């Protein structure tokens, strides 16, 4: 190195500079070196460097980190061998690198911070190049793939089969995307719901040359949300059915509302509700939808008290049978039908139907109670026949129907002769037995479908005969008289035999009379039979008992 005066070099250097002899004694220094000069004598590394430069005659570089009052300051020093008046010396020049060092440390720290944030805030980060291949994937990998399995592979590797990228497809988008929900394929083939945020990478000309972003797997969250949605929907459906049952007055309306709501909720082609009957025979109480798909009650699967819903698949349909129970007792079936090619979630449908069937089972139990109450309100407690109110309502409906269809009908009015003597002489228990025996004769005496019998009051009874004229009604009444001959054994006194008097009235289509006038006419004919000697049949409108009197309208 050229022989220059060290003092001149130190003074001319714009940064920190000093000159020391071979023993480390300071020969010259400038003001900029002030923070450094205090540690020259106490820093062994600096002393060793000075000795090495003097000994070897080769420059050396050192980084000096200060402490004490100047803690945090960093200087980079260059030690150069020089001669001072022929004596070996060392010229040290340097620069304050504090800002550079701190900046570098901040960059390193920020990179680590970014890496930590990415790792914490997303399942994986990625970078896609212009070739649409992954250039980078977080070290932890993604969706069951290791990072190296995705690197250099096309992004469509994660797309569901067949490849139909959604719009937008964040991995190849030329626009920023934030929280886009897409379905990606896991390494095992299952699908995952992923939220993707991405930014496009553009060159100086604004051309797309890649994208980068982060992803989060939200499959479990979406499944939980879907399950909560299903549970809420199921609860709302159950509540709607309960409300519909509560708001309807009759069992038929209850079941019709339940069937309608079930069909709508499950998007079913057909819904049938069947109540259990006697001897296991089912009764369809509600049906909605395609009648051709409705199951036959006599072909229901056998169900025990513990069975669940059962799926039956045939050539045309898929039918789910769910037993309707109340307190572990089978009350009926809820049958839901879909076309065979309507592929559904069987487990979910069974779960929904179990809830619905439970509510319908409660409704069926309520309907049984209502039916029993209705039966009691319409039935004579002693004989089991219709009471007067129910008989009048029923016959009134039949008369109206007959008029619309141009048909005739007849009413028999029956009264026991000398019945009071039975009660007085043989007791009311015997009298009740007589009434029950007569009711049995009426029920078992060849009544046809549509014929109706009732106890009008006391020892008075009535029978409505469907599509029967005067001749047939009188013949039926006389046959009943013959059957009632056995009642004589219950007579209270021999001179007052227990017999039956019957009045007959006929309702014809062109008559404007009602049920009350028909009963009144039959009652009046019955009293004529009593006046004529009892134990006889009289047709309303005739002057005396006859077997073939002219038919009289009422």
Descriptive overview:
The structure is a single chain. The protein is rod-shaped, with a radius of gyration of 53 Å. The strands form 4 sheets. It has a 5-stranded antiparallel β-sheet with strand order 2-1-5-4-3. α6 (219-247) packs parallel to α8 and α10 (419-426) packs across α11. It has helices at residues 6-12, 34-37, 44-56, 98-121, 147-150, 219-247, 251-266, 346-378, 388-405, 419-426, 428-444, 470-483, 515-531, and strands spanning 17-21, 26-29, 60-65, 74-84, 87-96, 124-129, 134-137, 177-185, 191-202, 208-217, 270-276, 282-289, 310-313, 317-326, 329-339, 409-417, 452-457, 460-465, 499-507, 537-539. By secondary structure, the chain is of the alpha+beta class. The chain has 13 helices and 20 strands. It is 37% helix and 27% strand. It has 4 domains: 6-100, PAS domain (Beta-Lactamase), CATH 3.30.450; 122-217, PAS domain (Beta-Lactamase), CATH 3.30.450; 225-376, GAF domain (Beta-Lactamase); 388-539, Alpha-Beta Plaits, CATH 3.30.70.270. The model is unreliable at 543-554 (pLDDT under 50). A hairpin with a 4-residue loop joins β6 (124-129) and β7 (134-137).
